[in-house]
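Inverse folding, one chain.
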């Protein structure tokens, strides 16, 4: 595998896994577009490299939120509860109700993860085949952009993460299940769900990333199991390592930047980008023989 391909795909994965623009669509399009433009002859790197990319982004999210995860686990099992949500709200002490909900956050996340886990297990064959049709990918990019726009218009942006309820977690969790369709974007649809539940943009992003952790981990472990049975293909070891490191570094920086961005900015730029990217995928699908 060319090292340059590993680096570029690692960058694409690190950026698009956490920004609301669909990593699957970008990873499917990038090798095709590079080859089509005559810049290089890249083929689909396959399942093995997909493991490296997911392992990298999993490491990024665990590294960024490691303190938060320790605090969530400690609170869930009866330990000390501290505010670990939005940094901008640290000046106020937790209310008794917020403390109770933070103790339940782990269980809320487990409940919210179940719909996506079921969808992934039931639809695995379609995810790798029929769901990758350019028309469907483009439609999801544009449709979710419209839903994001509605969320921006209708959301009240008033609820910090300590005020989360089981209803909030299940709403976002059910929406996360739709992310098995390429083009939807896990972060895009879950952040949108949080906005519809009146979370602040920062709270919606934080909960989205926390909720995605077990799903990303599960996907990485499942694919790793398949790779371990087959073994690494010849010449893949260096590309595997490079892709994992690059996606981890870029992913970490993307998370940090995006959370700061949402403290003062809207999702408008991503809404516009999704629509334009959806139109591009649609055109390439019809006129460029792009098959996903």
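Residues assigned per position:
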């Amino acid at each position: 595998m060319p090292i340059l391909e590993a680096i570029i795909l690692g960058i694409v994965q690190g950026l698009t896994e956490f920004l609301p623009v669909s990593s699957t669509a970008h990873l499917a399009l990038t090798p095709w577009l590079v080859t089509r433009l005559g810049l290089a002859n890249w083929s689909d790197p396959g399942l093995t490299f997909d493991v490296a990319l997911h392992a990298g982004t999993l490491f990024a999210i665990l590294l960024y939120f490691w303190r938060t995860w320790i605090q969530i686990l400690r609170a869930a099992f009866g330990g000390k509860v501290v505010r670990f949500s939005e940094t901008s709200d640290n000046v106020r002490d937790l209310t008794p109700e917020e403390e109770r909900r933070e103790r339940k956050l782990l269980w809320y996340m487990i409940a919210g993860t179940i719909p996506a886990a079921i969808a992934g297990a039931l639809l695995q064959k379609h995810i790798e085949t029929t769901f990758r049709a350019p028309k469907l990918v483009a439609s999801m990019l544009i449709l979710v952009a419209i839903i994001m726009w509605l969320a921006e218009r209708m959301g009240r942006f008033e609820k910090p993460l300590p005020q989360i309820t089981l209803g909030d977690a299940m709403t976002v969790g059910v929406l996360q299940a739709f992310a098995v369709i390429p083009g939807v974007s896990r972060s895009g649809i879950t952040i949108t769900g949080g906005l519809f539940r009146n979370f602040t943009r920062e709270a919606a992003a934080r909960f989205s990333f926390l909720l995605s952790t077990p799903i990303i981990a599960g996907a990485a472990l499942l694919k790793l199991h398949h790779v371990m049975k087959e073994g690494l293909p010849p010449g893949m070891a260096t590309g595997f390592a490079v892709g994992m490191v690059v996606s981890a570094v870029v992913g970490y920086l993307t998370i940090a930047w995006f959370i700061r961005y949402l403290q003062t900015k809207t999702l408008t730029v991503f809404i516009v980008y999704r629509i334009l990217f959806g139109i591009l995928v649609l055109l390439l699908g019809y006129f460029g023989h792009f098959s996903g």
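The CA atoms of residues 142 and 276 lie 8 Å apart. DSSP finds 13 helices and no strands in the chain.
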